[in-house]
Design brief:
two-stranded antiparallel sheet, 1 helix, alpha+beta, single chain
C-alpha cells in the first residue's frame, strides 16, 4: 500500500490484524483526533501494488518514487 503524499498527516502509521478478521488500515487518527467541519471534504488516496514474490527495499522504493513523481497537483 502506498500512502499518497498529498494525504493529510502523510506519512500515516498503519495497523492491522490477522486471524479471523484480517485487515490492514491507514491509521491517520493514531496519534491525535482530527476535526472536520460540516461540509468540508476529507479525501485520502492510496495505491495498491500487487506483485509476485518478495521485493527488496530498493525495488519497492523505486516503485513508490515512480508513483509519486507521476502525481499532479490536487487532482
Amino acid at each position: 500500500m502506498f500512502d499518497d503524499p498529498r494525504n493529510i498527516r502523510h506519512p500515516s502509521p498503519w495497523y492491522g490484524a490477522t486471524g479471523a478478521g484480517h485487515y490492514f488500515n491507514a491509521a491517520f487518527l493514531f496519534n491525535e483526533p482530527l476535526n472536520v467541519q460540516a461540509g468540508e471534504t476529507l479525501r485520502f488516496r492510496y495505491r495498491v501494488l500487487v506483485h509476485d514474490g518478495i521485493w527488496d527495499a530498493d525495488r519497492l522504493n523505486a516503485a513508490y518514487r515512480e508513483y509519486t513523481e507521476g502525481l499532479d497537483g490536487d487532482a
